[in-house]
Amino acid sequence: MSDETPEVNWHTLDDDEVLKRLESSRDGLSADEAKQRLEKTGLNSLEVEEGISPLRLLARQVHNPLIYLLAGAAVLSLLVGHRVDAAVIAGVIVLNSLLGFFQEWRAEGALNALRQMAALHARVLRVGNPADIEADKVVPGDVLVLETGDRVAADARLLSGDNLRLDESALTGESQPAAKEPGQVDEGTPMADRKNMVWMSTSVTGGRGRAVVVETGMQTQMGRIAGEVRATGRESTPLQKRMHKLGIVLGVAGITLAAGVFGLGMLRGHELVGMLMFSVAVAVSAIPEGLPAVISVTLALGVKRMAQRNAIIRRMSAVETLGSTTVICSDKTGTLTKNQMTVRMLWAGGETFEVSGEGYRPEGELQRTGGEKIGELPESLERLLSIGMLSNNANLKEEGGQWLVEGNPSEGALLVVAIKAGFEIGRMRKDGDRLAEIPFSSDTKYMATLHPGKNGDGSVAYVKGAPERIMEFCSHVLKDGRPMELNEKLRNEIAGINEEFASNALRVMAGAYREMPQGQGKLEQSDVEGGLILAGIWGMIDPPREESIQAVGDAKTAGIHPVMITGDHAVTALAIARQVGIAEDGEAVTGKEIDGMEKPALAKAALEGGVFARVTPAHKLKIMEALKEQGHIVAMTGDGVNDAPALKGADLGVAMGRAGTEVAKEAADMVLTDDNFATIVHAVEEGRVIYSNLRRVVFFLLATNFGEILTLTVALVIGLDLPLTAVMILWVNLVTDGACTVPLGVEPRHADVLRHPPRDPKEFIVDRRVALRMALLTPIMAAGTLGLFWHAQQNGGLDYARTVAFATLAGFQWFQAFNARSNYQSVFSIGLFSNKWVLLGVGIAIVLQLGAVHTSVGHLLFGTTGLSLMDWLSITLVSSSIWVADEILKRFGVYGRQRGKNVKGTEGE
Q1: Choosing from 150, 155, 167, 331, which is the catalytic residue?
Q2: Does 675 participate in catalysis according to the annotation?
Q3: Which end of the chain is least crowded, N or C, by CB within 10 Å?
Q4: Residue 44 C-alpha from the chain's centroid
Q5: Stretch 849-860: mean pLDDT
Q6: pTM for the full model?
Q7: What is the average per-residue pLDDT within 98-123?
Q8: What contacts 850, CB < 8 A, 6 or more positions away?
Q9: Can you give 731-788 as a three-state secondary structure string?
Q10: pLDDT at res. 52
């Protein structure tokens, strides 16, 4: 086989020509030939998105304005001879970068595990003998052996098939399984209609076949779409934008303040080298050194918590985007619903029956409308259930306590209701061995099978499908145990039952039969497209998840608009939307209507109605763009290949881990391992908690740093000696603050986190309330530190006074840690012991401060002297004043009350 194969229309060639061009045969390749081809073509896998290599991940950690400023401070410290300070700052940079690197690498590793949900293995022919190999080892020319339940490993041309049907919905958008058959098709045939081709990552829902591989990896249809997705850029998240802006502001402020302090110190006659180092300390004071590390830790813990709640976060900052989300555009099937079709009602012999139980678990019973128990099954009902069981290619099995269906979900529902009625599937299928079959197709809209008649008399054809098609073929209806001619009255009655079922969002399917003459072993369309006897009607639904109702309610309470986007019928979509609480009144907007709508009107329809039906992936993209143009932060779910552009373009793309394709997962920011809408709402909650915790940390660090700057500046202005050395300032910033910031970053969620609307994405992380708190509290810190410093200097030497100021400034941070836990509520309201990590952090900070003051190492490094018990009592009383003041200010609502849920921009506590 040549190294490069030109573009070939494989579907137009006959089988022999396909095999000739691929230099293969119907018996497949030999192991040696396959190995040689693999070396030429490469692995049969999709290339992952760029940016996840270790070097790129590490570069992403240090590409941060705060890191740049810290690096500059470290270099300057080294230049003026303060190697210890330079080493400490450099250590902070290294530790922060490594922490962020390892957490993001772990998140990518979790996605790699999810990626294994694609076709892991494939069965191929090796010189005529079936062999199981890893799917990424498949090469052009391999002959795939396809059976029900398999996932196709590569694009291939069908060589043979026996009632082969594939689910191609992820690639083509067609919801019904596509029937496949060998042969040639015209050159201009659309991809969805190429019945002689099978595509990578589609699933075999019925039958069996063999196909020769023509394209692998990125050359497949799925690979080409993946390439387009990878070429699309990805926007920064709101958190990244805010942190970047904060870094710039702090950088400018730090440099300006350092220059001002340096100039003031020189005017006061201080030494050049001493003021240079002091200016470095001032610049470092203005920078919250702990912020990058706390961001990484807080987001990493959020990633871990989300993984435990069935979500894999690909990028830690994407968790925060959920906290800003204003609209969640969700699929219906499998996300809001169980993706387990369930028969709820049946009509047979003129009676309507109800069915209990949900999903594929075969537990429940049949009863007449009104609750009357069924004794012996009426003949018409028994016949209907037999049709659903025998004219059926699905299989029901139990794995790990979960009941699963192999094959079509609707056929699975028919099996389950038959078991509920007492049928023994295995025995009855064996007794009613299938003689012939007409597969379901979107053209005929029915499936027919031929089985031996009762007592070996002749044979019987069982047919099931769309009610309108089955009724066309029926001349009689089974009623009171005998066929009755279908007159106008009976047809109207059955049509009314059909409409009643449909109006209750039930998917309706009809079953009929026809006795065939003795010895007939074949089945033609002409045999079943007339003369049928209607047995009855099934009404089934994919029921909503129980947790979806609560999750939708929580989302609305949180000021988020849930929007349902589905390819299902409008009536079904609207009924499910009303059941889960997305819609109350109004109608569903269909894909056809979307085509004629301008984007502002479309965004309005999404926010007011919230239900879209019969949509395509292109419609999803248009809806997402319309909402984003109106300033909304949009989370978009998807599972198919064609959903990838919408997932990539959304503020937060959410892919399905179970039903999702590999391309969808690559395009997404978050992957749901349980495909559950409630998990998205949990992520919203987590995002809000994380952002609130980050804001707590920012308040704590900036208030501390501004208090230090104010203390130093006032001391220089009023002519006092420098109350703190540069090393003392670095100790407070890196050790005292560090012990408190990480605990603040893991503050447990407060009860009202989902009672507030999303934040305005344009809102700066330091808003007016945070600025007001700092403006009121930092003067207390500066006044207390300078007051005790002045008093101590009157009664002792400069070293003693600086030790008192050093301990006082550290003490203010201990109490500030409790203040920072809430912007509005008293620490006693939220629970003094509800965050035990803060207590531990403050305890560690106290112990370390005692070591810095009372040990010989502390005396050597910081120039401190020992303090008496009365000194510590004075320090504690003065430093606690900031906590008392903040409690009073909160009690009187000086910072503003917590706003109601109708006000935009509120931060959840």
Answers
A1: 331
A2: no
A3: N
A4: 26
A5: 92
A6: 0.71
A7: 59
A8: none
A9: HHHHHHHHHHHHHHHCCCCCCCCCCCCCCCCCCCCCCHHHHHHHHHHHHHHHHHHHHH
A10: 58
